[in-house]
Fold:
Amino acid sequence: MNIKALKSLADIPGPTKLALIRDHLPFGTLYRKTSSELYNTYRKRHGNIFRLPGIYSNDSLEVVLFDPRDFEHVFRTEGLWPTRKGLSSMKHYRHVRRNELFGDAAGLDVEHGESWSNQRSVANHLMMKPDALKNYLPRIDKISKEFIEVIKNQRAPLTFEVKDNFELSVDYWALESIASVGFNTSFGFLSGRENALAKQFYRNFKEYSKISYKLDIEFKVIDILRYFKFQKSMWLLEKITKFWILELDKTEVISLVQKLHKKEQSNVLGVAMDILMAGVDVVSEFDKDAEMGLLHVIKRDDKKFANGLAMDMLFAGVETTSSALVGLLLNLSADLNKQEILRKEIESIEEPLSFDNMKNLPYLRACIKESLRLYPVAPVNSRTTTQEIVIQDFRIPKHTDIVMPMINLMRDEQYFQNANHFIPERWLRGNEHFKVRDPFVYLPFGFGPRACVGKRIAMMELEVVVINILKNFKIQYYHSRNNAFVPRFINVPNLPLKFTFRDYT
Ligand code: HEM
Structure:
């Protein structure tokens, strides 16, 4: 390639700041439109590569790509320590406001370079390896079975339809699953034993999700409330952290007390008080990882990283899995034949569920994959370049933010035949007819060393809950599926989730 013929970043086509503002004003093309509509609009105007002046967190330029070959090039040149821009309010809170809690090992979502790499190898070991994960399966299964009881109790007696706030129960399932993996504890959301503090914690968590989208992602021509939104986000994070991180300490004390109590038949409350007063490092008293939450295991070596990962698991591991389950229920209820094929595969699995008896479930895995295509959880992926790269004859300097709106390609006939149909078969080996045409179009959990560290946990949660649901119910949905999700930081459900769960006999 002739290096002189290459064009610069400034030559990349795209809307000017003025055009961007005009498009967002009332009566403008993009007024109140989603980010996905924005990407489609500018793609039509400017092509498969365009530059956007500062929309993500309103402060810096972005290059947006649509060609899977370019995605591949970005990922292949990301190096050993890939970088992705995160939520700036979250970063500020962990690095500046509460540095004493999180320090320089503040979690995977906000760290970069060597610090990220060190944390990530610990997390990979504990979150991606089947041997480490098998301890969590019985806990996940217990939560799923509690979720089944919630469904049974929520159904209307004659129609078997759940109420339109079913989304809350799905969120509770996802939150309890993460609490069981992370802390080996339960907040009682599914058994109706949640206390007022837990309820408030959940409300704060949801509010931060909304406010951080408005603060850090959504483009606004003028945002006069920005300062107040920022202060509110700090206040919410403080409340969330106090509850969630405290849980890390509290569950350790409770488990230790229970252990001592069993051994010595002593007074539980007295022992707990002694431990708290003495400030004993209770984590070192555990002897088996199986008794602990994943975060307790990490805390033995690095308390700050445990705090950071606790926040990551909450913010990256609850609404994501919840959204994925909603998508899957919508797809399975839309095609009862596929639901029946899946049920046949699942029927033979014996209780209790284990890695061994869940080994051979190709159709279930294909259904989850296909559902994540039709309703992807993460609308875009992004990278900040770690070196200068060349894309479509443009030189893209180091430290440039690149956005890859994969959601805009997931239903494109160019890449998927019958793209709007739920066809799990396309993911089964030997199925030439619906072969997926480009692996870089479909990356629901991201790519490379920075890909989702919770992928295996998420898949385990989804598999276990679907097995439990299909063994108990036939799922139907009698309402419109139009605009089922709306893209925020992740895709969130945008429908009353009034599913019908008839007993399956
Ligand atoms: C269906 C559910 C989920 C989906 C679709 C999903 C998707 C993703 C995606 C697309 C990324 C960015 C990857 C990249 O940049 O290449 C990511 C990152 C991440 N996810 Fe997930 N995720 C899910 C569930 C979870 C769960 C359950 C957890 C925690 C237990 C989790 C924890 C994380 C963390 C910590 C990161 C940041 C990793 C890093 O930067 O090193 N995710 N996820």
Remarks:
- The beta strands are 49-52, 62-65, 381-384, 389-391, 394-396, 401-404, 473-477, 485-487, 491-493, 499-503.
- DSSP finds 18 helices and ten strands in the chain.
